[in-house]
Design brief:
Layout (H helix, E strand, L loop, with lengths): L3 H14 L4 H15 L5 H12 L6 H14 L2 H13 L5 H14 L5 H17 L6 H12 L9 H10 L3 H7 L1 H22 L12 H23 L5 H19 L5 H34 L2 H10 L5 H16 L4 H18 L4 H15 L7 H10 L3 H24 L2 H9 L5
Helix pairs in contact: 1-2, 2-14, 3-14, 4-7, 4-13, 4-14, 5-6, 5-12, 6-7, 6-8, 6-11, 7-8, 7-19, 8-19, 8-20, 9-17, 9-18, 10-21, 11-20, 12-13, 14-17, 15-17, 16-17, 16-18, 17-18, 18-20
Length: about 425
């Protein structure tokens, strides 16, 4: 028997298969549901307007996107890479380590895996493949893998979206992502070391000691951005949204006035690029707001909670099940869609089982980031394959060890909640 809700879901799938963006598909299908259910069609517009204009936190999304674009068009990325080369370049597989460490540092500025891959990726892949030091596919794979650290270490655009649907504290979510992000970086560096010794990757010549102070001073203004951002937010000086504005302003001032590397044309391109990305995210959020209203009317979250209670799952069993579901969906769907449409369905069950929403949010975001590396949809894989002109299969093969390392970290933060909650609790979190 067909119901309005089943017709709505089928329409979303059908329109998506035909090529309509998922945000538009959800809006059209939700309006169709309202029509079939005999409800006021104006409710769709009401849900979108109320959701977008009453969510002050959403302002952080375009501001973090703009900050990342401004850093990419300036010379901040170049200076950070030179600094990372000083830190870890002298070890076996040094440029692979530079790749990971630079992403860890850049993660404290951008909040976007795509921005990290595009910004750092073009430069570091060129450094790694120059003179045939590393296979192009390997350089691409470690770049894509390291880029997923970006949205886990604060600031984080996916965590902002999770806070929108869960009402969890953005500040504590940001803190919760620090240790898992660092664990991911450590896991990737260990994997890179093992592969480098096995495949005899080169050791970079050490940077002369006399050059280290000069390189550090050049990178210092860029390194101060995450420090200012985090101390401003957790020192009570500004909210995460205000912190996003401060990050964008700081990136603009450093690139244009201090480094003098930002032309008016580059500024225009950065604003245009961030506007396009914001519009894309905005349409997706609008579609999710309307569809989530439909899901609420149909009482889907509570029905799922009742259904899952019949299995008598423990909190850990529930988290394990969510991991499996999200990892499968990550192979098929875009991350923001999962966050805005699928995750809200699980939140009532998580609350009922006593799962901490900060830990749940970090686990969800790590799942979604791993989804960027898993075919057939893995968006980062497509970006890197296009950037390097390598077959997608070659990138995937080289990325498998790093995907396994990421899964190991995911299991750790799932079964050891303190890996996520220790730092928030040190700064007053009572959950």
């Amino acid at each position: 028997m067909t119901t309005p809700f089943s017709m709505c879901v089928l329409m979303i799938v059908g329109l998506g298969v035909l090529g309509l963006p998922i945000g538009h598909s959800m809006i059209v299908a939700s309006v169709f549901y309202l029509l079939l259910a005999g409800l006021d069609l104006g409710t769709a517009a009401e849900q979108i307007l109320n959701g977008l204009f009453n969510s002050y936190v959403l302002l952080a999304v375009p501001l973090f996107i703009l900050a990342a674009d401004l850093m990419n068009v300036g010379t901040l990325t170049d200076r950070l890479l030179q600094f990372c080369l000083v830190l870890v370049g002298r070890f076996r597989g040094g440029l692979g380590h530079v790749n990971v460490v630079s992403n860890v540092i850049f993660a404290g500025m951008s909040g976007s895996a795509i921005a990290d891959a595009v910004g750092i990726g073009r430069i570091i892949i060129g450094m790694m493949t120059k003179g045939g030091k590393y296979p192009i596919a390997y350089a691409g794979a470690i770049t894509a893998s390291a880029a997923i650290i970006g949205p886990i270490i604060p600031p984080s655009i996916p965590m902002v979206l999770y806070a929108l649907v869960s009402d969890a504290s953005i500040g504590f979510l940001f803190l919760g992502g620090v240790v898992p992000g660092l664990l991911l970086g450590l896991a990737f560096m260990i994997m890179n070391t093992m592969i480098s010794y096995r495949r005899d990757f080169p050791v970079e010549p050490p940077v002369p000691m006399r050059e280290i102070p000069r390189i550090t001073v050049k990178a210092f203004p860029a390194l101060m951005l995450p420090v200012i951002l985090l101390f401003g937010i957790y020192g009570g000086v500004m909210t995460p949204t205000e912190g996003a504005a401060a990050a964008a302003l700081y990136a603009l001032l450093v690139s244009s006035l201090l480094y003098r590397s930002l032309s008016l044309r580059q500024l225009y391109d950065a604003i245009l690029s961030s506007s396009k990305a914001t519009t894309s995210v905005g349409i997706l959020i609008a579609g999710a707001l309307v569809f989530n209203y439909v899901v609420t009317i149909e009482n889907i979250p509570n029905s799922l909670q009742v259904f899952m209670s019949g299995f008598h799952l423990s909190p850990m069993g529930f988290l394990l099940l969510v991991n499996i579901v999200l990892l499968i969906l990550g192979c098929l769907l875009e991350g923001s869609t999962i966050l805005l449409v699928i995750v809200p369905i699980f939140i009532p069950t998580a609350k009922a089982l006593g799962v901490d929403l900060v830990q749940f949010g970090v686990v969800v975001v790590v799942n979604i980031m791993i989804g960027l590396l898993t075919p057939p949809y893995g968006l980062l894989l497509f970006i890197i394959a296009n950037m390097t002109k390598q077959p997608l299969g070659a990138i995937v093969r080289e990325a498998i060890p790093f995907i396994l390392a990421a899964l190991a970290v995911l299991m750790l933060i799932t079964f050891v909640p303190e890996t996520v909650l220790w730092l928030p609790r040190q700064l007053g979190y009572k959950g």
